[in-house]
Amino acid sequence: MSGHSAESTRGAATDSVAALIARLLEAGDPYAALGACTRLDSAELEELALENRRQRLVVAAAPFVPPRLLERLAQAGDPALTLRLAKNPATPEAALERLLEGAPPMRVRRYLAAHPRAGAEMLARLAQDPDIDVRRAVAGNAQAPAEVIARLAAEDDTEITRAAAAVPAAGAGTLARLWERGEIWVRADVVEHPNCPAELLEQAAGAADPLLRRKCAGNPALPEAMLLRLLADPDEQVRGAAVRNPAISEQQLDDSDDPSARVRRLFARRCSLPQPLIARLAADSDAWVRRWIARNRDLPPALIETLGGDAEMAVRRSVTRNPATPGPVLTRLAGDADPWVRAGVALREDLPDEALALLLGQAENDRDRDVLGALGRNPRTPPDRLEVIAAHPDKDVRRAVAFNRAAPEAALTLLAADAYPLNRAILARRSDLARRLSESLLDDPEPQVRFAAAANLARAAVTETQSFQ
């Protein structure tokens, strides 16, 4: 490409951004302007997105807007905006600090103290708040530093001490002091914490109260020897917590044959199990055990074949979702009497051609929306069939096509005029949506659709500009 041609292309890309901004300003739609602001830095669009108090209230509560807009709103001094910003999980730390500087009421301080973006300095300040509800919120904040937690843990308030025993920064010394208070629920939280001292874990593992043993069994820092001891506990909830613990090796579970179906279900949900245990679980009398083990990718073909013929529909459905299920089994299940099983096969992008042909042949008379919706999502479904599904009477079936990355433009055009707003909103978020369809959705009656369409067009315009820089 010549220098003149490259410069012309670069200029055209820049013009597309300017043209989009001009179009949105002319339309005067604050929702479309807000959507574009998620991708573009435009003072004029920001003014439009915040043009009235109602719109500012909407933006203050939205977790998907750019931080700069939330920081701007934090300067307004509006009590209603302040409350919404304090509750918004996306509000940046600088904006939170500004809100606190405004001496807000207790309700706002409580939300600030619980905010996931609150900084250590602000939390230290709020930990000294005269209102106990604010201090409780600080104690439960996962971002609270260790020194703040240690100070709060000395308070005579069960809610604070329980929260302090659960936050990540609680140190071993703090946890030991909390244990000494003797409150059973606080102790239970202490022994569940990864920083719990080893001597307290030993006490909890041998405690008479099954609550302490159960919480101890779930601690990921528990030594494997102690875990194995708890795996043989007489209480099924304790054994279940031990099975769920990621610290226990699957190989250590080989000899386990638990009398409780609830515990065996937890065994069946684990990966990398020994083959003898997999075989026992696949033959379990409890349908939920077989249902979970049927999804295990380590199942040998013979067991997959057996479970694929299980009398329980849910077990056969699980077989269809197993990545290791062979093609012949999928083909057989494509003709299953239960539509939920057929839908499981229809979702598979790796299904054999014979299975797809069988499902498509049945779809002529299949009124089950789960099967049709699964075919609508599957990129292997032929374009002409996707167009038919996009015109289906059921809105949920039609929506499936909006998620299909291989959907033809003819089907997407139908969805752009869909009667159900959510379908149009999902369509508007597609990164590969034709520009003409995105532009048509700028005139949609639903604000969420216009927002998504403008954000999509802005993304495309910025990407086009960056590719020539």
TrEMBL record:
This protein is called Leucine rich repeat variant
- Cited InterPro entries: ARM-like (IPR011989), ARM-type_fold (IPR016024), LRR_variant (IPR004830)
Instruction: Give me the segments passing through the membrane.
Output: none
Q: Which Gene3D superfamilies match?
A: Leucine-rich Repeat Variant
Q: Which residues form the signal peptide?
A: none
Q: Which organism is it from?
A: Pontibaca methylaminivorans
